Model the fold of this input.
Amino acid sequence: MGRVLQELFEPQEDQLAAQCDALWTDLVRSLEKQRVIRSKKINAAFLRWPRHLFVDQRDPIARRQAAGVNSPVSIDHGQSVSQPQIVAMVMKLLRIKKGEVVLDVGLGSGWQAAILRECVGAKGKVIAIERLAALCESTRKRFQGLGLTDIEVIHGDATNPQDVPVGPFDVITSAAGCKDVPPFWQDRLRRGGRLVYPQQVGEVRNAVVDAPGFDFPPDHHMEDGPIHQLTRIIRFSHGCRVEYRGTLCGYVPLVSDGNG
Done:
């Protein structure tokens, strides 16, 4: 009887897949209408690699959330898949071109790496580094199933110069926040290279916001934790310069294994 009830209330795989695809298409269209997604390249990448393909396929609730909700979705090991709106903003700031070489810090479930891979094209290269071995293993398997085996996955500490490829990279992006990026990241950008990361500008403790220079209403609904601001650094012939600070967001912290 339990199995019969389960079949009655849970959609079959084809039906669930169609529901998720429809939800995702609606979400992408809404981001277009809000002018969060303006580029045809980013729009095509989002539609090619829906976020719900990068969560546990055995969990119908997680798949629907990933497809239809414009917010982060939790995955294993205390991590999450980023909010589509924020990822779209990151992609815009990166100004990715076909054929470029990208370092993706914080592989997670692999969704952002897949978007990056679509943007750089067949002649480009995406290298993703992740400190959690279990996530590396599960995401490699996911990439194999999705035909994304040309994304290079490295198990390592992105704050340790010995674990990170020397590059040079056209683009470095981080899905983990910090007050300042490790200086060697900037050194591994080629001239004209772009680094986009969530810079910590404050935090919320017991519902009290501590973020100098930013005004938040007393009735804010922010959860306790760090507050980040998307920041872009450009490498020039004479060094690097912060070119942009903008959207506020929340990310997991950049964690060091202490071996650097």
